[in-house]
Amino acid sequence: MHLKMKPAARCMVQVAVLASLAGAAWLPSAIAAPAAGDEQMVSQAETQARASWREDISHTTPPAEGCFHATYPSILWKQVGCNVVTPRSHPLPRKVSRLNSLSGATQTTGNGDDYVAEVSGLITGTVGTFPSVTGVTSEQSVGVAAFGGGGILGANEYTLQINSNANATTSVCKSHSGCTVWQQFIYSPDYSTQGEAAVFMQYWLIGYGGSSCPSGFGSDGGGDCYKNSAAVTAPDVPITQLANLKLSGTVASGGNDTTVFTDGTEAYTISAKDSVLKIATVWDESEFNVVGNAGGSDAEFNSGSSVTVNVAVTSGSTAAPTCVADAGTTGETNNLTAGSCTASGGSSPSIQFTESN
Fold it and tell me: pLDDT (tens digit, 9 = 90+) per residue, 220-247?
């Protein structure tokens, strides 16, 4: 409903508006327009708001199984189509000479030589970030002889991986002697379609043995069985944007396991049943890093690269996790040397280290 003005009243309002505009013209510029410092403060506030959103969306559970997408500032997941992708092996470490890539470069971090965050209870979630990235201008994935030179090779081929421990068994092993379970949460550029990345989980039954794997699993030819969850499509992000990326993995016994990938103001997630491995009942160590793209490959960064890695874990405790060296579980590597590791407790217990070349 609108209030109708009388002509005289309308005239008075117009005069008042004109007077106020004229007065504003005489205000000092520091008052009439935002100062450069004020604009910078707005920018900083927006940057912080986006960082808070990325943290919130990483901990926001999708409403059901499946694939979802969210855009800043919304924390509501919108369902999108899932893709069935042919699994590419992201294998366990193989202890070999550190100088064994096909290009002759030295692998430094990965293939078992990586820090993990260890807790005394069980991990229900892990968030991996790169708080500082400097000097990174290029990266390429190269094959490693010990793994048969496999993987998705070439420029800007890498993976972000959160990896569980691989030393515990669950009922999914069906009493196979020596069988353990291992779960990976992965972001992989060009995984099945050139120019598109895939976000998914990879499941392993290590040492399952025998001539056949359970239904739905494929064999790696060495007694281990593996398969992928469905995958959600995400952008193929250049390595120069590494600092903007975040990967998280959460698990729920009797519920769904979820991985979330965020890239600036966009988030992508896939959620699937924990019963595939029942990893929620045995997860007590987390590895996170940027490494080669599948097949035991090596991510080779340009000289002068420095990447700080933060691995935050949720376990129902505020105690600091333990930095455990040489305990990583992925076979993929990078050519960065890891420095010392520090652990912190509080509302977001984590470990942090810097790797560089």
Answer: 888 999 999 999 999 999 999 999 999 9
Examine residue 164 and state whether it is found in any structural domain, yes or no.
Answer: yes
**Residue 152: strand, helix, or coil:** coil
Identify the domain containing residue 333 by its residue range. 67-356
Residue 210, Ramachandran bin (φ over 0: left; ψ between -120 and 50: alpha; else beta): left
Asked whether residue 54 is assigned to any structural domain, the reply reads no
- Would you place residue 289 in the very low, low, confident or very high pLDDT band (cuts 50, 70, 90)? very high
- Number of structural domains, the chain? 1
Query: What local confidence, expressed as pLDDT, does residue 305 receive?
Result: 98
> φ and ψ at 125, to 5 degrees?
-165, 150
Token pair for 351: 């470990």
Interior CA angle at 185 toward 234 and 61, to 5°? 75
pLDDT in tens, 173-183: 998 999 999 99
Q: Omega before 73 cis (within 30°)?
A: yes
3-class secondary structure, 72: coil
Q: How far apart are CA 182 and CA 188, in angstroms?
A: 18
Burial class of 30 by CB neighbour count within 10 A (0 to 12, 13 to 18, 19+): exposed
Q: In residues, how long is the chain?
A: 357
Q: How far apart are CA 100 and CA 114, in angstroms?
A: 17
Mapped onto helix, strand or coil, the DSSP state of residue 227 is strand
